Amino acid sequence: MTVSVAPRERKEAGRSQQEVAENRAELLLAWYDRHRRRLPWRAALGERADAYQVWLSEIMLQQTTVKAVGPYFEKFLARWSDVTALARASLDDVLRMWAGLGYYSRARNLHACAVAVARDYGGVFPDTEEGLRSLPGIGPYTAAAIAAIAFDRPTMPVDGNIERVTSRLFAVEEALPQAKPRIQELATTLLGPSRAGDSAQALMDLGATICTPKRPACALCPLNEGCAARALGIQEALPRKAPKKAGALRRGAAFVVTRGDELLVRTRPDKGLLGGMTEVPGSDWRAGLEDAAALVQAPALKGLTRWHRKAGVVTHVFTHFPLELVVYTARTAAETRAPKGMRWVPIATLVDEALPNVMRKVIAHGLDI
Q1: Residue 283 phi/psi, 5° resolution?
Q2: Candidates 9, 22, 58, 262; catalytic one
């Protein structure tokens, strides 16, 4: 069987690995200079990136789309223009501004990191991966991203887009997450001799716009003629992923109590799932929880004799488990005091509360809004 070889592939075959890598880096940067995305946190071509904006965007982008992050980033930047201003804010204010973006431990770490940078570094981010990793909420990927994009350190952060481009370019058939170290090693070869931050962002853009999960536009890719997966016709099958284990369904109850135009709420403990966020009172969330057991955990309110169970359930999916909540409603007299650890808030001002998405669903279901 004769296999035809494209002209560029024959040319690459006669080059050293270093020459091939340098050529790919040049092609990638040339493509990026023509097609780079305009993003609120990205510096203009030729300008130096702002470390605060890079850090803020990278924290927000963890497990969240660019489209969803854009408005939150601009809202945060308008409220807190630099890391020192963010450090002076209260955690409650940060959580309120973050509400709806999900994965709320990121917001708590964001505030803790701002405080650390202001306190320990005079409001200036460390410019090395090691220094950045010493800060709260900054792991290996985020440290590499900030180091490369803000300080042009020769390091390659590997996000989902870069992971996909690299696994296809080199036809890495080992499944994730086991393949991560190999992909990291290969992705690093795509760094140019300079412009490390642009190399990383070029790969991110390539994965987001050309080398997409489904139906990649291979004909438009600057690296297409050297792509091993394309040559094999397996580009859409990569990267391979080990099947995820789905968590067991948990059930619980939520209690939507109104006093005129006010709603009964409480604040969740600082540590743990949705830490520090606002919620309506509720039961434990656990597998197999029965309605009777959940009702025992209803808030004790003077003069309240019965709960109305709303038809249907509220569903929500967390990273490790799906959740179903039965919603009970009740109305109380104007003089009813809130139980210990709870408070009444005007329904009209709920937009100012740090409500996670699951609680927004619960309240909407309970109040028919």
Answers
A1: -90, 180
A2: 58
